[in-house]
C-alpha cells in the first residue's frame, strides 16, 4: 500500500437556518492511519472552519462521533479510510436523531429514553446503598448474565439503524432496552418486576420486530437485539418477586 493518497470526502451538511441539506466535496491527502474523524478534523482545521462535527476521545470510547459513512452507521474515529472506504468517502449525519447542524445530532431524546429505564441498581432498602457495609458478591456466572451489555458507549448507532425507531418516535429503542436488560439481569438489582411491567408495551419490548440491524452496527458488540428478546422472555415469565 502506498504511503499516502488523495481521496474525495463528500459531506452531507445541514443548515439549521434554511433547513436544507447540501453536499460539499473536499479533497484530502490521507495515509494509512487516517480515519474519517481525523480527515474531518483536518478539513475543519485547514479547509473549512464552518464544518460542524461532534467528537471527544478519538478512540472509540466516548460514543460522540457517530455518523453514516458510505451508507453505514459508524464511529468516524474507528473507520480507517484507506482500509474501509475507497477513493470516495460519503459522510452523512445520523438521521435517526434530529440533526442540529452538519454532522451534529441532538441526543436529548436518546438520553431521556435511556434514563426512563432507570439505568442504575435499584435496591429495596435504598439507605443500604449508601452505608457500604458489605459487598454485593456475585459469581462469575451471575456476572456473565449482564456483562456484555455493560459495554454500551451510548453512541446511538443502533437507534439510527433501527427501522422501528425511525418510524415510531415513541419506541424506547435498542439502546434503552438493552440497558434495561443490563440491570434486570444483574443479580444485585431488585427492580426487575417494576421495570418489566413498564416495558410490556408496544413502545417497550413489543415494538421490536427483531430485524437485528441494531446489533450489526454496534461498535462494541453489545447485541441489543438479543437483549430485547431476553427481555420479552422475562416479560412473559416475570419473577414472582424482585429476587433473581
Ligand atoms: S448498544 Fe451499541 S450501538 Fe447502541 S448506543 Fe450502545 S454502543 Fe452504541
Ligand atoms: S470520538 Fe469518541 S468514540 Fe469517536
Overview of the molecule:
The chain is α+β, with helices and mostly antiparallel strands and 244 residues long. It has two domains: 4-105, Ubiquitin-like (UB roll); 108-236, Alpha-helical ferredoxin (Fumarate Reductase Iron-sulfur Protein, Chain B, domain 2, Orthogonal Bundle). It contains eleven helices and seven strands. The strands form two sheets. Strands 2-1-5-3-4 form a five-stranded mixed sheet. α3 (108-116) runs parallel beside α8, α8 (173-184) runs antiparallel to α9 and α8 crosses α11. The radius of gyration is 21 Å and the shape is elongated. FE2/S2 (inorganic) cluster binds next to loops.
Q: CATH class of the largest domain, please?
A: Mainly Alpha
Coarse shape: elongated
CATH A-level architecture of the largest domain: Orthogonal Bundle
Series of secondary-structure elements, N-terminal to C-terminal: EEHEEHEEEHHHHHHHHH
Largest sheet, in brief, is:
5 strands, mixed
Bound compounds? iron/sulfur cluster, FE2/S2 (inorganic) cluster
Q: Please list the strands of the largest sheet in the order they lie side by side.
A: 2-1-5-3-4
Structural class: alpha+beta
| CATH fold assignment of the largest domain | Fumarate Reductase Iron-sulfur Protein, Chain B, domain 2
| Measured distance between first and last alpha carbons | 54 Å
Low-confidence stretches: none
Instruction: Please report which band the strand proportion falls in: under 5%, 5-15%, 15-25%, 25-35%, 35-45% or over 45%.
Output: 15-25%
- Integer-rounded radius of gyration: 21 Å
Tally of separate domains: 2
CATH superfamily grouping of the largest domain: Alpha-helical ferredoxin
Strands, count: 7
The number of helical elements comes to: 11
- Helix percentage: 25-40%
Amino acid at each position: 500500500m502506498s504511503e499516502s493518497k488523495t481521496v474525495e470526502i463528500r459531506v452531507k451538511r445541514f443548515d439549521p437556518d434554511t433547513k436544507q441539506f447540501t453536499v460539499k466535496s473536499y479533497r484530502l491527502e490521507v495515509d494509512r492511519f487516517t480515519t474519517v474523524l481525523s480527515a474531518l478534523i483536518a478539513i475543519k482545521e485547514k479547509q473549512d472552519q464552518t464544518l460542524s462535527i461532534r467528537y471527544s476521545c478519538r478512540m472509540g470510547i466516548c460514543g460522540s462521533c457517530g455518523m453514516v459513512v458510505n451508507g453505514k452507521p459508524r464511529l468516524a474515529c474507528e473507520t480507517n479510510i484507506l482500509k474501509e472506504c475507497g477513493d470516495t468517502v460519503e459522510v452523512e449525519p445520523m438521521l435517526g436523531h434530529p440533526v442540529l447542524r452538519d454532522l451534529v445530532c441532538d441526543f436529548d431524546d436518546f438520553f431521556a429514553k435511556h434514563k426512563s429505564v432507570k439505568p442504575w441498581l435499584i435496591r429495596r432498602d435504598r439507605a443500604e446503598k449508601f452505608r457500604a457495609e458489605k459487598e454485593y458478591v456475585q459469581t462469575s456466572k451471575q456476572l456473565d448474565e449482564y456483562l456484555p451489555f455493560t459495554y454500551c458507549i451510548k453512541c446511538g448507532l443502533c437507534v439510527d439503524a433501527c427501522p422501528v425507531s425511525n418510524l415510531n418516535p415513541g419506541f424506547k429503542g435498542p439502546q434503552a432496552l438493552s440497558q434495561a436488560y443490563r440491570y434486570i439481569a444483574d443479580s444485585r438489582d431488585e427492580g426487575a418486576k417494576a421495570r418489566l411491567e413498564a416495558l410490556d408495551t408496544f413502545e417497550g419490548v413489543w415494538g421490536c420486530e427483531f430485524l437485528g440491524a441494531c446489533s450489526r452496527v454496534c461498535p462494541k458488540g453489545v447485541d441489543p437485539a438479543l437483549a430485547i428478546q431476553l427481555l420479552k422472555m422475562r416479560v412473559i415469565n416475570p419473577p414472582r418477586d424482585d429476587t433473581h
